[in-house]
Amino acid sequence: MLNSMEHRLTAEDRKKQLVKIGLMxxxxxxxxxxxxxxxxxxxxxxxxxxxxxxPSKRDYYVAVISAAGRRxxxxxxxxxxxxxxxxxxEMLVQFVAFxxxxxxAYISFVRxxxxxxxxxxxxxxxxxxGLTKRVLTYLGTPExxxxxxxxxxLRIHAWLAYAEDLAIEWSGxxxxxxxxxxxxxxxxxxxxxxxxxxx
Length: 199
Prior knowledge:
globular; Arc Repressor Mutant, subunit A; single chain; mainly alpha; 2 domains
């Protein structure tokens, strides 16, 4: 039964609530396995009312996966008062922690893009571009942050894929079987970045 506060939700608040529920469910299953009926039930509304806020299942999925991309950019944003080297490290620490904490959802995010879903590809590409631009800025080369055809941009973009895959595989191992700690993984990724830039 909805309480009076829930009755007073604006359309925008209701949409945010529904997306938040989707994000919570995304922790355990891929985007395409999210049940619209379960989401509507969790929100205390009918399936039909959910489609009043989101015209189609695809529109809802787009909203959820877009929110997931924004969340990743938000939680990996370091303290702006830090020196650039520390910003890079802090961003990477949070990136690895995010993947470890939300591994199934993150894999769903990556595989959705790899599977060719247009909306997933777009969100994934925008998120990766945002991270790439941050790294380039922290490395002291902000002038290439928007030059997606430059060798330096492509190099950093590829390095992020390496760090991402390393974190995904590492976090999938039982903790007592991991060959190194998360801190070592971050150190290794940063060392790999600096070596890559010298090639």
